[in-house]
Write a structure and sequence with these properties.
Elements lengths: L15 H4 L1 H7 L1 H4 L3 H13 L3 H24 L6 H16 L8 H14 L14 E8 L13 H9 L3 E4 L2 E10 L3 H5 L2 H12 L4 E7 L4 E4 L29 E2 L2 E2 L12 H5 L7 E4 L1 E4 L3 E4 L11 E3 L6 H15 L6 E6 L7 H19 L3
Parallel strand pairs: 1-3, 1-4, 4-12, 5-8
Antiparallel strand pairs: 2-3, 5-12, 6-7, 9-10, 9-11
Length: 374
């Protein structure tokens, strides 16, 4: 008698991000389903899978395909980061719940979800050409505050997709930009996502400039003094609150331990060159910080902040400030000296392809101006 192994029906619980999918599908089906072919293909492959290794490789390939399709789409003129975000969540949902053609444990499904996250965010796609003499890394963020507006876009994410692989000539040298997309989740930061991304880059000295970008205020802000502590009362995309506030700032974590470092660090961007760029928006060199003893003020130097306790860095008290702090701190720990810093873009409401296109063009010029100083 032949015994047939049953197809596993184990599944993981959907998280808060994935639970927004029905509303998003109802509200903007053309956005959520723009890359439906990728997810349909994944479901079929899950059903037909026979072993863990081949399935993991397939998932990685599909995730990278999603990233590359989104990059190609934006660079062809569909100025929208949202299809990538929502398609990634559909892939995650499939990996968590879809029937698989072999017995699969929950921990194995978690591995598949992690593979989707890495491959669909460009982490596996950082490839500089041998002829590129100036190598620039740019990070963008997912859309966020989606319970306020399910259709919210993030111009930093659009920028990452628009500039991935972009090459240009400056002072007789070829420059190239490679990009990745960062999740708006405290846990990923606490688990070292930024350090995992940048440690091999700093160790090998493999890039010449790093820009972290997020959506911010009215104009462009170059955030001079990132602070160590979190203080924003706003939730992340999983609706997690840190428990921090302006009255009670808290240090983030790194792999289970409090992140150690000075209360403030200073960026190394070539500010004067960047500020010469003309566009729709001002480019501010933002010195504003908040400390427990002095409240909010414009700091003139790191020395002035030496004995202070950070409440907000120039980039605020949320993850946009934190990505900048972690990037600069890690550079210092590796004794590197390259231009690293954060750009806050103008804020947009919902999705506006023309405004976001204009933002991308000004950032492109700002990065070009910075590259001209190398």
């Amino acid at each position: 008698m032949t015994i047939t192994m049953p197809i596993s029906a184990n599944s993981l619980t959907k998280d808060v991000e994935e639970l927004r999918l029905p509303l998003a599908s109802k509200t903007m089906p053309q956005v959520v389903n723009r890359y439906q072919n990728v997810n349909d293909g994944l479901n079929q492959q899950l059903s037909n899978a026979t072993d863990e290794l081949s399935m993991t490789e397939t998932i990685a390939s599909q995730g990278q395909r999603l990233w590359q399709q989104a990059v190609k789409d934006v660079q062809a003129g569909n100025i929208d980061d949202r299809p990538l975000y929502w398609s990634r969540l559909l892939m995650r949902e499939s990996a968590k719940t879809h029937d698989v053609g072999y017995p699969i444990a929950d921990w194995q499904r978690k591995v598949l979800v992690n593979v989707i996250e890495k491959s669909s965010r460009g982490f596996s796609d950082i490839q500089f050409k041998p002829e590129s003499q100036i190598k620039i890394l740019v990070t963008g963020f997912d859309p966020f505050f989606l319970d306020k507006d399910i259709g919210q876009s993030n111009p930093s994410g659009v920028t990452a997709l628009a500039l991935d692989g972009y090459t240009f000539n400056i002072n007789g040298k070829q420059a190239q930009i490679e990009t990745v997309m960062i999740p708006v989740r405290f846990a990923d930061f606490d688990n070292g996502i930024i350090e995992s991304l940048l440690t091999p880059i700093y160790r090998e000295n493999s890039v010449d400039m790093i820009f972290t970008i997020s959506m911010g205020r009215e104009h462009f802000d170059l955030e001079r003094f990132p602070g160590r502590n979190r203080s924003a009362a706003a939730p992340d995309n999983l609706n997690v609150l840190t428990g921090a506030s302006k009255a009670s700032p808290l240090a983030p974590f790194l792999n289970g331990k409090t992140l150690n470092g000075p209360e403030f660090v200073e960026f190394t961007l070539p500010v004067k060159a960047i500020q010469k760029v003309k566009g729709h928006w001002q480019i501010n060199d933002n010195h504003q910080v908040t400390t427990t003893s002095r409240g909010q003020f414009d700091a003139t130097s790191l020395a002035e902040l030496h004995s202070a306790t950070s409440v907000e860095g120039s980039g605020g008290g949320y993850l946009s400030n934190e990505i900048s702090y972690r990037s600069i701190l890690l550079m210092q720990q590796f004794n590197r000296n390259l231009p690293v810093g954060h750009i806050h873009t103008p804020r947009i409401k919902g999705h506006d392809s023309q405004l976001e296109s204009d933002i991308v063009e000004q950032i492109k010029a700002m990065i070009g101006a910075a590259a001209s100083t190398l």
